[in-house]
Amino acid sequence: MPAQPGAAPVSDHRVSVDERGSFCFAGCSCGWVAPARRSRDRARRDAAEHLAQSQQPVERY
Fold it and tell me: What is the pTM of this model?
């Protein structure tokens, strides 16, 4: 696993939404994890936003 969450190449980002009790968690193969949500739709949206951000080019200085 990469040292920093979100540092994996775009092709390595595989998101999933898991349920634990009444909460849903979005997570990614790069190590990123969203906060617990009661709404499945919000957890899915968190995952979609992570994928969209991971596809943007990273500016390096």
Answer: 0.70
